[in-house]
Amino acid sequence: MYNSDVPVGGGVLNLLGLFLYKINRNHNIQISYKTKIGYGLYIGHNGPVVVNPTAVIGDNCNLSQFVTIGSNEGKAATIGDNVYIGPNTCIVEDVCIGDNVTIGAGSVVTKSIPDNATAVGNYAKVINYNNPGRYIQNQWIKSKQERNKDEHFF
Description:
CATH superfamily of the domain at 28-134: Hexapeptide repeat proteins
Strand content: 15-25%
Order of helices and strands: HEEEEEEEEEEEEEEEH
CATH class of the domain at 28-134: Mainly Beta
Low-confidence stretches: none
């Protein structure tokens, strides 16, 4: 319903809205510059991917399409090294995902997942510890100099 108390810019605002829509519709990856990300991040199929600014992502992490790492209250997830996150996965709130973990497609992660585990489901549960992280290809291997630099940084 039209409200005469609200100023309307007419065609100019419509054009501005259309312009902003066209610019933003191609940006399917929403990762803040504040997000801490390790070496070797891989995002499959050009997203869409949404990552909360408080998330921490380790080295060699693979994010498939339609992955959300978010939080409604406080800090988002901390994700270890060599982690594969399958398509349509939601990682919610302050959980810890260990190193060498595989999270299956369509999972909703609300609790921490230990190292070397494969977890699937809604809500995600660990199903085995056999060959986790096997989908991580072309890993970034840190040089000795980079490892020493990281140790002094933290």
